[in-house]
Write the structure tokens for this entry.
Amino acid sequence: MKFKSARIQNFKLLREVALDFSVDPNRPVTVIRAENGSGNTSTLSALEWGLFGDAGLDASAREVRLSPSDWPDGKQCEIRVQIDFAHTDYDEVGGELVAKHINYRILRTVTETPKGEKAFTREREQVHLFELTDSGSEEMAGPEIRLGGKLPIDMKDVFFTDGDRAMNFVSPSLTKITKQHQVRAAIRSLLGLSVLETALEHIRKASSKFNKQLAEACGSVEAATIHTQLEDKRAELKKHRDRLDDIDKQIEQIAKKEEEADRKLLQAMKGIEDHAELAKRLESARRQLRDAEETEQRLKKRHQALLGSESMSWALLWPKLSEGLAVLGRLADRGVIPATGLPVLQDRLELGRCICEADLSEGSTARNNVLRLLETQRKVDEEKKVLTELYHRGGVVVRNRPTGDEGLTGWLGEYDGLARDRLSNKKLLENLENEIKAIETKISAIDQGVIEELKKARDAYRANKSQKEVDRQDVEINRRPCEAKVAELEEKWEQIKAANQKQRALNNRIAVSQDLGAAVKNTLDELQTVYMRRVSDRMNALFLQMVGADPTVAGGVFKLVFDSIQWHLLTEP
Amino acid sequence: MGDAQQLTLKVLKAQCLALEERYPGYRVDVATRLRAILQMVRQTGTTNVRDKVAAELQDFGDTLCRKTRATEPPSEV
């Protein structure tokens, strides 16, 4: 089947879209590219719906409306998908199969009435299939059956996919067995194997009926006995085979569950691996935190020392000290310091005469004035003494220090550097504390209990599978002698048939049913081995081409299908 | 019938060819009968398929019986 064009109306995001697919055999790919949310997936869904109806949609998509989400409530919306495609049919003409390339058009419509955001009513969908000719079109009866013959629904999951689902197909989210099942079902459907299997079953039943008629017609006890024994043994053998098929199916189901449980366990175990990694990271973060805390302590001490240091005092006091020393220097220049008045006044009192010749004898006014002056001068001289000492000592100290500006800049520079170091270390501490908290949260989220449960579930499936394999062996042990007995009885029955050639009509009925049965059986065997592999390889190549995947990675998807089928056939009785 | 089912038919016809030695034309007869049976099975609307398949085989056997009788030399009395 080759798509030629499609027209989609009122389907989800698509109001009116016309697509022309490439029909050039040298350029057999049509790429539909559009921004996210603009209707790529809607286009794919529309094509699936157009071909398969509701069955073509995912289960979840069937529950939601097909009409555009902005379609007014209460107003009928006709959804239409029309697909033109070419298909090669084969007709038998004079015993030869002649290929006919026919153009078809499928038109699927449905009317939907939205009632609120999610509610809607949908009428029964209509589907029409037309054969397109140069002179027009002719509607064909039984469109669904005809379409099913050209593109069975089993093909949908394998051939209709989008990027996400294609990646899922090569990713572990689908189990290998599920993938194999999908592909095997698609190939079986494509080749029409179920039709052959059903036909074979009917032919065998008819053959059995004819054999019974022959046994009755022979009229001998031996023929009746052999036939009865043969039928009984065949029935027994069929039971064994059915039981083996049933066990195989159970094993496959259990293996699927085991694989799923194992996948979940691995996922959870990945948490354990992460746990080790997280523990390592936690240890490292805690070590870094300890280092940062020690650094913080060192910086704190440096900070305290810097605040109590002489350099800080000098840096802060230097301007005032300089100013004070300058004042004292000026006082010294003017002779205010050191003090000189007190010894002179003392001498004058002892002489009893002032330098102004005034009498300084006891009780005189001038003496009393000099005494008061002496008292005042004594206090001033004390202050001058202190100032003088300050002047001389301060001068010595200041002269031995670096200049004021350099001292201040040095201290400030050191303080600034320290402040930056402390700020940076504080940020590091915060970050480490947050990291530790985050790692601890992650570690606590890993539930060891869940892992144990998953392990138990996986082991239970494994044990169950082993038990089924033992059961299978038991059935197999019983099947082999039964099969040998059937072969023995069949030989005897053939002899009876040969001895009763008069029952020609019955013998011929048996012969043709055996011949037709053998033709169908051999065809099934050949298709399931040689041709299944060819189809699988072709699908594999197409799929890899479609997803642009690495053949060494995804190649196993389809190869495994074949391996699985081979295994099934080899173990088939 | 599509390409894949055409493949199935091709394999079926090859199997029919192996039955040719029974008598001339048997291959075509088997193919015709098989096609009829597959048609019955494929058509979902067909009822009582098992009996119809048995009837088809019975008719084929009886037809074969008549054909082989017609080609045999007359038996001596």
User: Anything to note?
Assistant: The first helix of chain A runs from residue 40 to 52.
